[in-house]
Amino acid sequence: MTLAAYDGEILATRIGAGKQLTIRAKVADSGDLDQVRAIWSKTRGTLTPSADPFIQIWTAPADGGLATVSVRVRDGEGAEGVAHLPLVVEGVLSSEKAMTSFAFVNPPVSGKIDQTARTILVTVPYGTDLTNLVAVFETTGSNVQMNGFDQKSGMTANDFSKEKVYVVTAQDGSKAEYVVRVTIAAATGRMLTSFGFLEPAVAGTINETDKTVTVTVPFGTNLSSLVARFTASEHAVVRVGSVIQTSGVTPNDFSAKKTYTIVAQDGSTQDYAVVVSMAPGVVGMTPKNGAENVNQRAPFILTFDRPMKKGTGHIVVRNLTDGTDVETIDVTSDSVSVANHLVTIAHGPLASKRYAIRVAGTCFLDETGRYFAGIAEDTTWSFHVDAEALSAEFAEITTPRHQPVESLALNFSKPITGLDASDFMLTRDGVPVEIRPHLLSGTGSTYALDLRNLTSLNGQYILTLKALNSGIQDAAGNSLHSDVMRTWQMDTEAPTATIAEIAPDPRNTAVGEVKVTFSKPVSGVDTSDFELTRNGTAVALTGLTVARVNDQEYRLDLTSVTGTAGSYKLTLKISDIKDAAGNALAAAVSDSWTTDTTAPTATIAEIAPDPRNTAVGEVKVTFSKPVTGVDIADFELTCDGTAVALAALKVTKVNEQEYTLDLSSVTGTAGAYKLTLKISDIKDATGNALAAPVSDSWTMDNVQPAVLAVSSTSPNGWYGLGSIIDITVKFSKPVRVDISGGTPSLTLGTGPTARSAVFLSGDNSDTLVFRYTVAAGDATSRLDYASTGALALNGATITDSVGNSAAMTLPEPGTAGSLGETKAIAVNAATNYTFAGHLGGGKTGWWYDVRINPVSVAVDTKGNIYMGSSFGEILKFKSSGELMGILSIGVSYPHIAIDAAGNVYVADHHRVQKFTADGSFITTWGTQGSGNGQFNYPQGIAIDAAGNVYVANHHRVQKFTADGSFITTWGTYGSGNGQFNYPQGIAIDAAGNVYVANHHRVQKFTADGSFITTWGTQGSGNGQLNYPQGIAIDAAGNVYVADHHRVQKFTADGSFITTWGTQGSGNGKFVYLSGIAIGHDGQVFVADSYNHTIERFSW
């Protein structure tokens, strides 16, 4: 949709003050225009409608400025479109910017404008949604905005839940701000909309005209503390007096009228009168609920709490036993009578059943018209009617029996009265026995007769309860309909039993069928009545059965359980075997026999000691029972699996169960022996052969343990001062070490002073461990023991388990099995270094044809020597001193380092260069400066085992990868821990720790620059330093410092070991040391720039 202004037929957007323009709205795709509605508005001037709703005549205001005409179009389906047309009014620009009116479209309320404070206050009705209100306003300004957005009167919606600021702009551009605050009026609702109670759950009736509430609660309800459940108008407060009420929570006493006051949010009130009354109720029933033995014709009576009268409806008599209605009584009939509080209900005769009475809720009402709620549940009024004849029964009496009848129960079909001792008659074998009154006890329907003293004698007993003329009746008057009788036989003689004697006895076969005979017929005989033991231990009879021949003879087959040798006893126990009267067996009976089928066994006495180093003497053989037929042919002896002849030996009989055999002449040779007694013709007295062969084994060992090899559990490599090296001596067999008289030791070849490794552990094994601690002065490139006799007992003993002393001779040093051959362990705690040659300076030595002015020195893994010359050259020599090549780099004072691959790193001036071992250029990095990766005359360079490059430069250390990528840096200027003052030398140990020589000290760091320790002060004493220029680490971890006119050697933690060198130009003398390096064999190379030489030292 679009808007256009026409001055006549000409389009226009500018017009003089007071002039008119025709504004036309064009709607595209509008469909049925009759269903389209247009709403026009403007910011200034006036709009006059025309016959066409899409055309308006706009008259410009009298003053110049900007104006806007807007139109909102909505079709019949709710689709909307909005268009705005900005116009310019030519004339004098006005400064007017007042908001002259303000209102809302829905709800239609106007605001109050305070032109002085420039505030607009609007109060809207309760419930108004403030989040989407459209304002209608008028203004003398040319434009109205809020938060930078244009506001259109009657169109723009805003959220007025918070205050809004309207900005009015005058024609001249000046602005005024109006603050709009919208408040919601308080709620006026004060109606009680529902009322009832939680317990009992009843609802009240609200009469809005009378402002009353009536509630009827069930009979018996406690009115003094009822909790009301109610609802009221929104935001209203409910009070009773001054107490605020909470629905479902606040209790009140409703025994009198209660006034509920509803207080609206605006403070207005409305009172409601609440009246609670109670429905009529029953206070008594005849018969009572749950009553028993009710007469079949007795009337039903209800007693109410107040006078009652008949209503309409029915009373139903229900048969609960059968679940049927047996009688329905109309309350208006003559069967129902009401007298004040009592209601009497007549009915027809009832059977012996359980009944319930139901009463309709309309049957009875009080004088005020309140109805009795009625009886709707069968459990409210139910009872049992008794219309049955009376019967009785004595408890059962076992017959025949062996004990007197004690307390005999007599049970009637219902409670009775009129029973006494004269109603009974007892006879024994036809002779009356008197029953005295005190022997009868009981009440109701259960009685007992105590007959224990009347029925102990044997005989035939008859007990009768007489019905005729007895006077026995139930609660309903029913008499006993017939006599009740019990008869029994008394028998107290116990049965006896006999087990037929088992023969033959003793025996070597299983017993078959055993016969048991009783003195009278019995029952209850089964396997559980029998007990069979063998050697006193029970034998399970599971699976056996007792065969009944007749009531006096039974048989038990024991074939399957008596085949094992032993002493047997079969017992018939006194258990549950009884005669017909219940008399138990008089006494247990038993029979015993012996079966022997056990083969003899033998035991060879254990030979001790085992292992042993002497021949075995007499061997004892013991049998489990007396035997015969034992001779030398029954024995077999082997040594290492080979038979040993025994024909010349004899067996000695000590008794019929013990024999001996002397083996001293055939067991003196070393080996593994086994003596076996075979199954042959050895038998016991009953002919049972030996059950199984037996044997005993032992070892004869008279061979000395011998040393097989000497080795070490310590890894190959270099070891320095204080290092611990464990040396192992392996024997040909496990040995025992007794150190009560001294401690074994192993003398080592460790340089000028022989050292001993002292026994540490290994007792009772084939490997002994000796411990050696490297001491000052110890040095060897291949650790070994001193000689074949280096293993000394020193008062101790080393034997095998049988006492053979060990041979102490060791393999020849340097040969197979020696320490030097099995391990490559080197020791360097040398304190005495000697001059071994030099390069340059006119001193006789390796090489003297090349000018030498060394500033640094390095040694690769092959022993080649690299020298950095102040002439800008890198010279490479063989270990023999022969020059291999010269690399000219054109920069003076190069400092060099060699990595594990033989690559050469040169720190010079402001960079690091990397070359192959033959001098081919690889890469370079660094520029002058103090940033990461920049240098300022670096003085030291070192490579760690991982190939990382460390450069000591100015007052810091920088760490790079092998290709020059920066990793980290540490250090600042100063003398504190981790600070430097022009560090001169740097070295890395095998663990990756970094050592930096600087000023008068050495500092030690982790690989990432964390400070570990420091040592050294300025001076010339041991451990003191004077501007050290070089530092190196040997394979053992010793630290060497090139310090002015001398070399000092320390442990890895800075403990002083030794020093050598003085000022001068002779061998072993120095003027100014500029570098130091350690060869793979521990030789020390020192660069002396003032003497123009590199000197080599060895220990």
TrEMBL record:
| Bacterial Ig-like domain: residues covered | 491-586
Q: Name one GO cellular component term.
A: extracellular region
Question: Domain DUF5018: where?
Answer: 156-276
What UniProt keywords are attached to this protein's entry?
Glycoprotein, Repeat, Signal
Stored InterPro entries: 6-blade_b-propeller_TolB-like, Big_12, Cu-Rt/internalin_Ig-like, DUF5018, NHL_repeat, SbsA_Ig
Instruction: Pinpoint the SbsA Ig-like domain residues.
Output: 279-384, 596-698
NHL repeat ranges are: 929-963, 971-1008, 1019-1053
| Protein's UniProt name | Uncharacterized protein
